């Protein structure tokens, strides 16, 4: 199975930093964001190759330069961003996935230590066309207060909140039939 990392985002919320490097190359503890995703994907035996999609003609060229010398024990290949959204990018890599029954799709700005092996097992057992990593709880970044008549009655510092709907984590395992569906819709 191959893993596809979508790394073409402009990182507009990361300005002014992302004016100098792409979101995927944002440094975290001295390493680019994308390197954490690559290293995590490498840890799974069923991942045989990692495909990185970005705009390599622009700032994304820094990603290609970073992986120019082998830093990975898996094959890493690069595909130019199609500039037509996620669906367009998936159509653009169809040939690279032709021998695969499915593939992992990972948005580069999602650092999650999900159990990808368990997700892959579920994908195979259910013979799914798509398996999507979600969460139903989220630890908030700020505290919350219950205020009555201008008086704080209760305060919770950074609580874990139950979400009203499952939140997508930007990590998928997709069957090749998904690309066929995208192709049909784009006609």
UniProtKB/TrEMBL annotation:
Top-level lineage group: Archaea
Protein name: Nucleotidyltransferase family protein
Species per Swiss-Prot/TrEMBL record: Candidatus Nitrosomaritimum aestuariumsis
